[in-house]
């Protein structure tokens, strides 16, 4: 009736949702999966790619002049993940996935813009 959540614990709310709490707990990782695609990430953030199965990531941040390949790692019940740290001067990062156990490719390249702000 008073417009407040009845079971709100003020110190916990302030720790995670207050202005100072949001700054303190802000994460420098952006998550991408085929079920949750994103279009951009901020400079300095790490892009974490998730999939249910083990995969190989092939990526570039200079229009395929240089290739980087990484194998995913198991992350428990979430499946497998691989991280991308875009270069400081990159304006976008592009990648594709390969599932070695099936010997299949994603079939297209994914591009994510790297925003300066």
In short:
The chain is 13% helix and 39% strand. The protein has 117 residues and is mainly beta.
Structural description of this entry:
With 117 residues, the chain is mainly beta. The chain has a single domain (28-115), classed as Sandwich (Immunoglobulin-like), CATH 2.60.40. 13% of the residues lie in helices and 39% in strands. It is built from 2 helices and 10 strands. It has helices at residues 10-17, 19-25; strands at residues 29-33, 40-42, 46-51, 56-60, 68-71, 73-74, 80-84, 92-99, 104-105, 110-115. Strands 2, 4, 5, 8, 9 and 10 form a 6-stranded mixed β-sheet that branches. A hairpin with a 7-residue loop joins strand 4 and strand 5 (68-71). Helix 1 (10-17) packs across helix 2 (19-25). The longest helix is centred in the first third of the chain and has 8 residues, at 10-17. The chain starts with 9 loop residues before the first helix and ends with a strand. The mean pLDDT is 86.
Secondary structure layout:
Blueprint: H1 10-17, H2 19-25, E1 29-33, E2 40-42, E3 46-51, E4 56-60, E5 68-71, E6 73-74, E7 80-84, E8 92-99, E9 104-105, E10 110-115
Parallel strand pairs: 1-3, 2-10
Antiparallel strand pairs: 3-7, 4-5, 4-8, 6-7, 8-9, 8-10
Helix pairs in contact: 1-2
Core attributes:
6-stranded mixed sheet; 10 strands; elongated; mainly beta; 117 residues; single chain; 4-stranded mixed sheet; 39% strand; Immunoglobulin-like
